[in-house]
Design goal:
Elements lengths: L3 E4 L2 H6 L1 H13 L4 E3 L8 H5 L3 H18 L3 E4 L2 H9 L7 E4 H10 L10 E5 L13 H8 L4 E4 L17 H4 L1 H17 L4 E4 L2 H11 L4 E4 H8 L3
Parallel strand pairs: 1-2, 1-3, 3-4, 5-6, 5-7, 7-8
Length: 232
């Protein structure tokens, strides 16, 4: 496994810092070789999605130059927005872009990551950029199924038919009431599935679903759940 460069992203750096901290703890405890960027930058995802092309292209150009200068070959992110932007909007020839859920599955299959028991009925919310855009459905579910005692149930709308949490693409900033209503609907679907725990793998989804749950159920990001259940 080559050296990872961990791109924390805006949301995990400034709003949901526990996710970045959990990912760093996972990497350190497993003694995986990784590096951090000296000055964290935005990937430009929201700029691209909201039509701010000039600003987005400037962000892309600066990041690509930095990646080339540093010799980045394996780029890790916890944010599906960053993952999608790097794969779709950047020119990163020779760079493997990994989402955390993909890395975790890889480590579990290699026997390097083992998780302790947790008896809970859980369901998984598919982030739009990770699922419908790139077809990453099974990786996070395989991680969840590796947890002894965890029963994974599916919501009526899941995988390619999953409902959006309402937080991405600038929707929350432009239409906050519509955005929150979408997230509350998603939490309701998780409750209807009989889940006690709602898991996602996106800082935007995690932040939004946690707010919408209003204490009715536990909401966790995959990074936090794995960090808490790691053996050793």
């Amino acid at each position: 496994m080559g050296e990872l460069w961990f791109f924390r992203g805006c949301m995990s750096t400034f709003r949901e810092r526990a996710m970045a901290e959990a990912t760093l703890e996972i990497l350190r405890r497993l003694r995986l070789p990784f590096r951090l960027f000296g000055r964290e930058r935005c990937c430009g995802s929201v700029l691209f999605r909201t039509g701010q092309e000039r600003e987005a292209e400037e962000v892309r150009r600066r990041n690509e130059e930095e990646f080339r200068r540093l010799g980045v070959r394996r780029l890790l992110t916890t944010c599906p927005g960053c993952y999608s932007t790097f794969r779709r909007d950047y020119s990163l020839d020779g760079v493997e872009v990994l989402h955390l859920s993909q890395l975790l599955r890889e480590l579990i299959r290699e026997g390097r990551l083992r998780l302790r028991e947790r008896r809970v009925r859980a369901t998984y919310h598919d982030p739009c950029h990770l699922g419908r855009e790139w077809g990453i459905y099974e990786e996070p579910r395989e991680v969840l199924r590796s947890i002894p005692g965890l029963e994974l149930v599916e919501m009526t709308l899941s995988r390619e038919f999953s409902r959006c949490c309402g937080a991405g693409g600038g929707v929350r900033s432009a239409f906050p009431e519509v955005s929150l209503a979408a997230s509350r609907t998603r939490v309701g679907e998780a409750l209807e599935a009989g889940a006690e725990l709602l898991v996602t793998s996106c800082p935007f989804c995690y932040h939004h679903l946690k707010e919408a749950a209003e204490g009715r159920m536990e909401v966790r990001d995959l990074s936090l759940l794995v960090r808490d259940l790691m053996e050793g």
